[in-house]
């Protein structure tokens, strides 16, 4: 007997229904948290091409003195500051070490692949009960690895973020000092100068260098060395080191406990915020840089580096803009710290707007680019000569201006990410800034589209009305 159902072909839903279902499934898989960060470089590249074609009418090979005076300094601020810092070179700080006074705290999420090596390195110098790992919602075998090394594991079931995980772990600390460490940072035999905290300083930064594995990491190696050997070291005289790297930092327990109610809990720029809160304190003990070198694992490709800067580091620059302004207007702030605040708030954040608007001119007027390039390399050469130890090949300096343009792209992407995250948090009514991750998908979609469209509109208006002429005073 033949089943009649086998003779009737299955009824397929209408094409419109199938199409809508496909779109709905695709939307469910989209990560809106990444949209603004990846959309902005596309917008900037399109703006550069459109402005150069429609406004500048192609490439030009003449030179304008007035324009050069306005444009070139916009791109040489970093190099000029580096040369200035070379002249203010100072010595590192060092003192005695007492490991009994230190508890290591590591906030870690899904760190199974790297934390074993870090713990093995630490166990050579610390007993297991002086190493606390706050597993921040890990879904892998992080806790198993920690227990295998006989260290203290605090298994936090929900992903509450790095900062709140650190605060959670402070309740288990019994020593006066805390070494905050990333799960991929190796301290080796680097001295941990607790004597500096005994003197009254609030925190100690370290010379963080990167493990070189690819040619991309060589740019970062030079960048990190320049930051430690020149940028931070000059601040030791007044204990005004601006940022204790999130990779490693030695703090008094009392200061970290004081900041539990002050720190916003935001991951991006969490280390910068922690350091600025020290400098904003009424009883500022100060922050110094130790003569101790530790290694960290850097991104190995430009895509990984872009993600680190756009979704990790640079949104914190904009998140701490208010803290920089408070340092600028606060009384009895050391001049070096006030100068750093001015540089980061105005010479980076504000001037980036002009750099972005002027980018097409640098591309379509090669003469200006050549002048900028040669000047930048000359200024960086002074910094290169001052870096200690393995400075890397000079070709890194020769290509560093292009790395600077890459940095401009990452800061624009980070600004879009910063606006997106704030929008999601505000629209969702969340308390903690990092809770944007659990926002409603429709709100995330709306925020991502509005932020990306808003940035695109700013550039489009400059193509249509070229209001950048107001800043450059150049007529095409």
Structural descriptors:
476 residues, alpha/beta, Spore Coat Polysaccharide Biosynthesis Protein SpsA, Chain A, 2 domains, eight-stranded mixed sheet, 19 helices, 8 strands, 10% strand
Describe the structure.
39% of the residues are buried. The protein is α/β, with parallel strands linked by helices. The longest helix is centred in the C-terminal third of the chain and has 30 residues, at 335-364. Helix 2 (35-55) packs across helix 17, helix 3 (65-87) packs antiparallel against helix 14 (335-364) and helix 3 (65-87) runs parallel beside helix 15 (366-386). It is globular, with a radius of gyration of 25 Å. It has two domains: 31-88 and 345-472, no CATH class; 99-333, Spore Coat Polysaccharide Biosynthesis Protein SpsA, Chain A (Alpha-Beta Complex), CATH 3.90.550.10. It is built from 19 helices and eight strands. 56% of the residues lie in helices and 10% in strands. The protein has an eight-stranded mixed sheet with strand order 3-2-1-4-7-6-8-5, sandwiched between helices.
Cα-atom Rg, whole angstroms?
A: 25 Å
Ends: how far apart?
86 Å
Tally of helical runs: 19
Helix content: 55-70%
- The backbone outline, from C-alpha atoms, is globular
Q: How much of the polypeptide forms β-strand, as a percent range?
A: 5-15%
List low-pLDDT spans.
none
The counted number of beta strands is 8
Strand order of the largest sheet: 3-2-1-4-7-6-8-5
**CATH fold name of the largest domain, please?**
Spore Coat Polysaccharide Biosynthesis Protein SpsA, Chain A
Average per-residue pLDDT, rounded, comes to 88
CATH class of the largest domain: Alpha Beta
CATH architectural arrangement of the largest domain: Alpha-Beta Complex
* Pattern of helices and strands: HHHEHEHEHEEHEHEHHEHHHHHHHHH
Structural class: alpha/beta
The domain count comes to: 2
Largest sheet: 8 strands, mixed
């Amino acid at each position: 007997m033949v089943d009649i159902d086998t003779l009737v072909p299955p009824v397929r839903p209408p094409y419109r229904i199938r199409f809508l279902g496909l779109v709905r499934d695709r939307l469910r898989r989209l990560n809106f948290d990444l949209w603004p960060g990846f959309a902005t470089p596309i917008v900037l590249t399109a703006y550069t091409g459109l402005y150069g074609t429609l406004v500048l009418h192609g490439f030009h090979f003449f030179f304008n003195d007035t324009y050069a005076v306005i444009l070139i300094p916009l791109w040489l601020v970093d190099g000029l500051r580096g040369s200035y810092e070379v002249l203010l070179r100072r010595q590192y700080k060092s003192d005695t070490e007492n490991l009994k006074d230190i508890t290591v705290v590591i906030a870690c999420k899904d760190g199974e692949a790297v934390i074993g090596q870090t713990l093995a390195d630490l166990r050579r110098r610390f007993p297991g009960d002086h190493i606390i790992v706050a597993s921040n919602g890990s879904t892998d075998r992080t806790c198993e690895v920690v227990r295998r090394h006989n260290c203290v594991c605090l298994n936090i079931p929900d992903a509450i973020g790095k900062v709140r995980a650190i605060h959670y772990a402070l309740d288990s600390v019994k020593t006066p000092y805390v070494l905050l460490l990333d799960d991929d940072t190796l301290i080796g035999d680097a001295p941990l100068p607790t004597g500096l905290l005994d003197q009254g300083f609030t925190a100690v930064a370290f010379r963080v260098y990167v493990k070189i594995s690819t040619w991309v990491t060589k740019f970062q190696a030079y960048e990190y060395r320049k930051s430690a050997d020149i940028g931070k070291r000059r601040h030791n005289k007044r204990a005004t080191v601006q940022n204790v790297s999130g990779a490693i930092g030695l703090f008094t327990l009392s200061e970290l406990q004081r900041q539990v109610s002050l720190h916003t809990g935001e991951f991006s720029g969490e280390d910068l915020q922690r350091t600025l809160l020290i400098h904003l304190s009424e009883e500022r003990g100060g922050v110094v840089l130790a003569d101790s070198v530790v290694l960290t694992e850097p991104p190995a490709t430009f895509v990984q580096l872009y993600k680190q800067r756009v979704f990790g580091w640079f949104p914190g620059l904009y998140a701490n803009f208010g803290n920089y302004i408070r340092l600028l207007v606060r009384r009895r702030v050391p001049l070096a710290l006030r100068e750093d605040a001015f540089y980061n708030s105005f010479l980076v954040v504000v001037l980036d707007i002009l750099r972005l608007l002027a980018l097409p001119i640098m591309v379509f007027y090669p003469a200006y680019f050549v002048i900028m390039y040669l000047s930048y390399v000359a200024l960086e050469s002074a910094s290169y000569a001052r870096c200690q130890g393995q400075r890397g090949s000079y070709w890194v300096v020769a290509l560093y201006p292009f790395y600077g343009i890459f940095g401009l792209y990452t800061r624009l992407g980070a600004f879009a990410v910063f606006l997106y995250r704030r929008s999601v948090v505000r629209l969702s009514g969340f308390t903690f800034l990092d809770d944007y991750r659990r926002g409603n998908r429709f709100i995330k979609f709306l925020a991502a589209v509005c932020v990306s469209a808003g940035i695109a509109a700013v550039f489009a208006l400059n193509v249509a009305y070229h209001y950048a002429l107001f800043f450059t005073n150049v007529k095409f």
